Amino acid sequence: MTWVGWVAIAAGVLAVAAIVIAVMVYREQNSLHRRLEAGTVSPAARGLAREVDEGGTMVAFVANPSKPEAAELREAVRRTAAELGVSEPMWLETTIEDPGVGQTRAAVDAGADVVVAVGGDGTVRAVAEGLIGTSVPMGLVPIGTGNLLARNLDLPLGDPLSALRIALTGRDRSIDVGWLRVLRFESDVHDKVAEAADERPADPDAPRDHIFLVIAGLGFDAAMVAATDPHLKAKMGWIAYFVAGIKHLRGDRTRVHVRVDGERSTTARLRSLLVGNCGRLPGGLTLLPDAELDDGWLDLAAIDARGGIAGWAQLFGEVVLQGFGVSTTNAPKIGRIDHRRAKEVQIVVPAGEFAQVDGEIVGRVVEVAARVDPGALVVRVAALQPQTSGV
């Protein structure tokens, strides 16, 4: 059997392992749901509430009401406050029209000492955007599908009380954020043609910056996100992305023009181009091994997969191995991932491609620009453990 065959078999085994992990996570989430439904206020919850109240901390929660765990957590917070005879913290819910930015700014204006995002990656992004430019820290109670930032901050998943304790009593850490600006949507090109023919006016909306805390991307990854079944995602979590990705494994490579930090533009044919602030993904995968949340850089990954499924199998195996610190630089390849760093990057995709930020589709784009905003956000993370000296 050729090395391609062995890599394909290895990737298949790893894919099965990823499915098993996803099922275990799904079962753990169901177990969490049952614990929250029990309706009890634990001594740990009462102790945490008393600790925050005695410290005079003003806490604001910005929660996604579509998550069942959010309502259950609010009820636990309400019961705890009532038992202790203290005022209930601010609880602001997101809406379709405002996914959390306005609520966060209202909490800051009201004097909140910490704003806790209760939800998935979309809620976390919105709360983060509302906190940019302030010194108010963001806490996270991750109850979404990917929980990407929480994974990269080593926050507990599936344990809201532990996450809440860190959000309220942990240490502050400044991290970078990324911004993706769409300069031209694919529809803008057609609009200009139509405008020239006096068919309809061009879109008057100005370019808008989209915040990302983990990874923005164009190509295969964004198409996978766009094709993900929301019902399957609600039932099985991030494994739904793998199912959607299978549909796009045989897609065409796209011509991409990239300009990094004002240098001369380069052209390549790729399946995906990622711009990352950090690189840890669900399932234990590390896509950008050198990316750090507070290094002041964006990490780029240009992904090219030839040979169909065999090429993707080789790349998947490479990503898994690099997560363990194993280099595959000298191995024969039919797919490749090229890495480099940047402060700013401009990307042109003449044929148009889907673009995403932290798993949220921003549309089909032709031209985008990304930049890093160093140390722009303060987050709450676990306190450092005191070091003990050996005897």
TrEMBL record:
<keyword id="KW-0067">ATP-binding</keyword>
<keyword id="KW-0808">Transferase</keyword>
<feature type="transmembrane region" description="Helical">
    <location>
        <begin position="6"/>
        <end position="26"/>
    </location>
</feature>
<comment type="similarity">
    <text>Belongs to the diacylglycerol/lipid kinase family.</text>
</comment>
<keyword id="KW-0594">Phospholipid biosynthesis</keyword>
<dbReference type="InterPro" id="IPR050187">
    <property type="entry name" value="Lipid_Phosphate_FormReg"/>
</dbReference>
<keyword id="KW-0812">Transmembrane</keyword>
<feature type="domain" description="DAGKc">
    <location>
        <begin position="104"/>
        <end position="187"/>
    </location>
</feature>
<dbReference type="Pfam" id="PF19279">
    <property type="entry name" value="YegS_C"/>
</dbReference>
<dbReference type="InterPro" id="IPR017438">
    <property type="entry name" value="ATP-NAD_kinase_N"/>
</dbReference>
<keyword id="KW-1208">Phospholipid metabolism</keyword>
<keyword id="KW-0547">Nucleotide-binding</keyword>
<protein>
    <submittedName>
        <fullName>Diacylglycerol kinase family protein</fullName>
    </submittedName>
</protein>
<keyword id="KW-0418">Kinase</keyword>
<dbReference type="GO" id="GO:0016301">
    <property type="term" value="F:kinase activity"/>
</dbReference>
<keyword id="KW-0444">Lipid biosynthesis</keyword>
<keyword id="KW-1133">Transmembrane helix</keyword>
<dbReference type="InterPro" id="IPR016064">
    <property type="entry name" value="NAD/diacylglycerol_kinase_sf"/>
</dbReference>
<keyword id="KW-0472">Membrane</keyword>
<dbReference type="InterPro" id="IPR001206">
    <property type="entry name" value="Diacylglycerol_kinase_cat_dom"/>
</dbReference>
<dbReference type="InterPro" id="IPR045540">
    <property type="entry name" value="YegS/DAGK_C"/>
</dbReference>
<dbReference type="Pfam" id="PF00781">
    <property type="entry name" value="DAGK_cat"/>
</dbReference>
<keyword id="KW-0443">Lipid metabolism</keyword>
